[in-house]
Amino acid sequence: MDVSLEQVQTSEQWEAYHTLRRTILFERRGQFGVYDANHPDDRRDNHHPRVLRYGDQYVGVIRIDLDTESETAYFRRVAIAEELRRKGFGAHLMRLAEEFAASKGFSRFAASVAKDAIPFYQKLGYHFADEENYQKQDDPLMIKGLSGN
């Protein structure tokens, strides 16, 4: 699969980034009119918005937040275009995000995960940060280290 994870820079990339996030992560979940395309977190230092390109289209998004204090790369608002789910794009996106974070010296990865995405993250080797209480959390934190821990 010929995919690339590109830094969001151009107006076309920003439009794709926000459209995918808004429609998949907000509107698909019944949250209309609340998405903020101008949220300052997308442009903070050590926050890296990325789009997954497949051919001539953008098919996925992620923001990689590199937290030097906790030495953790946090993967935020991960989404794949609806029509391309369950075709390997999510796994490619996560692999490329992990490679990017590792290239910056990070070996611990984390994501707050929607309940319906838990099996996907488990398949990629992530586990619950709080095994005893994850069921009580809306979006439990899942973690992974380069060694698989």
Write the layout of secondary structure elements.
Elements: E1 3-7, H1 11-26, E2 47-54, E3 57-67, E4 72-80, H2 89-103, E5 108-112, H3 118-123, E6 127-128, E7 141-145
Parallel strand pairs: 4-5
Antiparallel strand pairs: 1-2, 2-3, 3-4, 5-7, 6-7
Q: Could you characterize the architecture of this molecule?
A:
The mean pLDDT is 93. This protein is globular. It has one domain: Aminopeptidase, CATH 3.40.630. 25% of the residues lie in helices and 30% in strands. The protein is an alpha+beta fold and 149 residues long.
Give the ordered list of helices and strands.
Answer: EHEEEHEHEE
- What is the name of the CATH class? Alpha Beta
Q: Please, what is the average pLDDT? A: 93
Major sheet: arrangement of strands? 1-2-3-4-5-7-6
Enter the CATH topology name: Aminopeptidase
Structural class: alpha+beta
Annotated CATH architecture: 3-Layer(aba) Sandwich
Q: Tell me about the biggest sheet? A: 7 strands, mixed
User: Taking Cα atoms only, what radius of gyration do you get, to the nearest Å?
Assistant: 15 Å
List the domain count as a whole number.
Answer: 1
* Total of DSSP H or I helical runs spanning 4+ residues: 3
| Low-confidence blocks of residues | none
Distance between the termini: 27 Å
Instruction: Estimate what percentage of residues fall within beta strands.
Output: 25-35%
Number of strands: 7
